[in-house]
Amino acid sequence: MNKNLHVAKRNKNDEFYTQLVDIENELKHYKEHFEGKTIFCNCDDPRVSNFFHYFSHNFERLGLKKLITTCYKNDRMDIFSKNDNEAAIYLEYTGTKNKNGVPSVEEIGIRHLDGIGDFRGEECVELLEESDIVCTNPPFSLFKKYIAQLMEYKKKFLIIGNYNAITYKEVFPLIRDNEIWVGVEPWGMTFSTPNGEEKYSRMTKWFTNLDHGKRNKELILVKRYNGNEDGYPKYDNYDAIEVNKVSNIPKDYDGVMGVPITFLVDYNPNQFEILGQLVTTKIDEFNFGYPFINGKRKYARILIRKRKN
Prior knowledge:
Layout: H1 2-11, E1 17-18, H2 20-27, H3 31-34, E2 38-41, H4 50-57, H5 59-62, E3 66-71, E4 89-93, E5 111-112, H6 122-130, E6 133-136, H7 143-152, E7 156-162, H8 172-176, E8 181-182, E9 189-192, E10 198-201, E11 204-208, E12 241-242, E13 257-259, E14 272-278, E15 292-293, E16 296-297, E17 301-306
Parallel strand pairs: 2-3, 2-6, 6-7, 12-13
Antiparallel strand pairs: 1-9, 3-4, 4-5, 7-11, 8-11, 9-10, 13-17, 14-17, 15-16
């Protein structure tokens, strides 16, 4: 499935649909953020989107103010339509009239946009400015541009992306500076596909700038550092030690360490400082080249250091 997602990115084929259970499992950790807020799902046909289903059926319980959804030129009821209709739609939902918690067809009135419903279009940007929190599964092929827009308009968000997106030069500085971070649930999700199958992707993760309890949970360290002979060799091209597993981070080492990118799942900004990454041949202020040990290139690493006190 990871290969399929990479192919989808190259071919601009982003038709992988989020399952309700994955939305429920993650969003349950953010209830305190939603009360009185306008939620914007700007990559969703409201008639078939599980994001719309979750927020509309939990509208009163979450205490939402408004739910806005927009759809990219898709005027058909089939979830796997090819976005080949020129009519883009949106709606604004403010809860059920009879307070039974179940939205009716009359309450979910479909409205048409003048444009094609692209999240970068003028109409969608106006709706974005009105919203408080953005929550959706954006096109993987446009993830860099999507994140850039959210940061430009200073929006809170909870979105899905490929875990390797953290290595993008447009994304990693935001991770390093604690402007965005990963969500609560472990990486990996199951998606529906256009042919009706279900596919699991291990490298899919939630990205957010909403605080959650796990983000401030201290990572318990048990390993000790006793020199290179104990499994912590130094890199040839950077003054840092190699830590091949997050569980192997030594509790008594205060220098720079290279850790797997999965470290971000356990990252506590009060416990660790992110310095940069060893992930590419293109060296800049955040990237310092692939890690090498004894002349052999290693896997991508994030450079961290324990905070004092």
